[in-house]
């Protein structure tokens, strides 16, 4: 959802999902993201490399239609000037942390990063030049993770978030940021912007009162009540789930995703370029 708000700020319609053929309008862009997708393993349905292949098919088909004299929402120049946003890795890290200690988790990062680099390289080789790559969020502040029973509360930091999860997220983002710096050097005439979503989303919890949030670690939609209102056996979609009366007071919607109010704050921070390297504003990639 955080990725939706930049478009809203520019009065651009929501991106149509690639897999939704009927009723889709691709004139403002295409969303190839799939819920729950990961970078690895490659045989997982809709892994990152599959999404890249779907884009290449979409591009080839669009240009083919142009050559046949038909109109398409985007032409060859549009594909080259488009902004390619990549936000992936959180599901990979979560899966690793559920089974491995911290040191072994970090040791698994290089193949994930290599897969992201490969995706950018393939896009670049096919004409893409503008990339906006997001780091992962504050995984240790997700009610989904906090609700897992633990005997030792020393696992929590001063804001009530899981230290190990956030430590892993910070380590991953540091490596991803370095990769983006490397790509900026290696890819001629390309721009690769790295944005630190961890810092943005952790601030929603650490400075929640500044943004008007009362319950930074409790879901708006969930089951079980305080402190997290999250039950691993009952999701927000379950019949017994409860929904808060004022979502603007909550950071988390369902234990994993942000509320609309929190997304608006996060998107404003993303657009400010304060958390980006290099500090390019989102609108600088938009051409009339």
TrEMBL record:
Instruction: Output the superkingdom of the source species.
Output: Eukaryota
Q: Which GO terms describe its molecular function?
A: hydrolase activity, acting on ester bonds
Q: Which Gene3D superfamilies match?
A: SGNH hydrolase
Q: Which Pfam families match?
A: Lipase_GDSL
Q: Which UniProt keywords apply?
A: Glycoprotein
Q: Mind telling me which InterPro entries this protein's record contains?
A: GDSL, SGNH_hydro_sf
Which protein family is named in the record? Belongs to the 'GDSL' lipolytic enzyme family.
> Could you tell me what this protein is called?
GDSL esterase/lipase
- The organism named in the record is Aegilops tauschii (Tausch's goatgrass)
């Amino acid at each position: 959802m955080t990725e939706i708000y930049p478009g809203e700020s520019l009065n651009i319609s929501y991106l149509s999902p690639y897999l939704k053929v009927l009723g889709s309008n691709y004139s403002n862009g295409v969303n190839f993201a799939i819920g729950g997708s990961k970078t690895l393993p490659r045989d997982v349905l809709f892994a990152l490399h599959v999404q890249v292949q779907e884009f290449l098919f979409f591009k080839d088909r669009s240009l083919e239609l142009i050559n046949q004299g038909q109109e398409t929402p985007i032409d060859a120049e549009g594909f080259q000037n488009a902004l390619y946003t990549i936000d992936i890795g959180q599901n990979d890290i979560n899966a690793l942390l559920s089974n491995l200690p911290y040191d072994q988790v970090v040791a698994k990062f290089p193949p994930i990063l290599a897969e992201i680099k490969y995706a950018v390289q393939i896009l670049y080789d096919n004409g893409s030049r503008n990339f906006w790559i997001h780091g992962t969020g504050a995984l240790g502040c997700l009610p989904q993770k906090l609700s897992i029973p633990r005997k030792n509360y020393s696992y929590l930091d001063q804001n009530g978030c899981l230290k190990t999860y956030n430590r892993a997220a910070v380590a991953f983002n540091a490596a991803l940021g370095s990769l983006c710096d490397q790509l900026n050097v290696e890819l001629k005439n390309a721009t690769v912007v790295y944005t630190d979503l961890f810092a943005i989303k952790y601030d929603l919890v650490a400075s929640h009162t500044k943004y008007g949030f009362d319950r930074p670690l409790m879901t708006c939609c969930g089951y079980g009540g305080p402190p997290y209102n999250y039950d691993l056996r009952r999701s927000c979609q379950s019949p017994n789930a409860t929904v808060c009366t004022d979502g603007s007071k909550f950071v988390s919607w369902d234990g994993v995703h942000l509320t609309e109010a929190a997304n608006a704050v996060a998107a404003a921070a993303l657009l400010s370029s304060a958390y980006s390297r290099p500090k390019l504003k989102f609108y600088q990639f938009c051409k009339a």
